[in-house]
Amino acid sequence: ALTVRFLTRRFIGEYGDMEFIYSHNLTVDGREILFHIWDVPSSQQQAEEGSSEEKRIQWADSFVLVYSICDRASFNILPLKIQFIKAAKEGQSQEKVPIIIVGNKRDLHHHRVVSSEEGRLLALSLDCSFYEVSAAE
């Protein structure tokens, strides 16, 4: 939902467990940037073997890991995923890999189980950026 919102400015609430690669042109600071976004649902990632996830990691230049503020399990898996990404990407070079942690569903604050502070602290401890958003809003 967050990827589609970024690409189309529209919110669609229901998705299947499908993997998609999107391409999108965007002008940033007067420069045209071509994004290729490999969007993989978390449940699919957890079911696959590491080699497929390793392929995605090698393909990407940066990472946006999204969790639901209403789902503790989606938050708890992040440290392991980030360690896996850093080991795969930073092990090859001295360059830091850009990783952003995004807490989604901020509009559902009444169902919140992961605090903003927890998200900020996790990002700080793993040297990542952090944002909280609502794809619906």
From TrEMBL:
Class of this enzyme: hydrolase
Entry's family note: Belongs to the small GTPase superfamily. Ras family.
Catalytic activity: GTP + H2O = GDP + phosphate + H(+)
PROSITE patterns in the record: RAB, RAS
Protein name according to UniProt: small monomeric GTPase
Coiled-coil ranges (or none): none
Gene3D superfamilies with a match to the protein in the record: P-loop containing nucleotide triphosphate hydrolases (3.40.50.300)
Enzyme Commission no: 3.6.5.2
A Pfam entry, by short name: Ras
Keywords for this protein: GTP-binding, Hydrolase, Nucleotide-binding
UniProt-listed InterPro entries: P-loop_NTPase (IPR027417), Ras-related_GTPase (IPR051065), Small_GTPase (IPR001806)
UniProt GO molecular function: G protein activity; GTP binding
Gene encoding the protein: Rasl11b_1
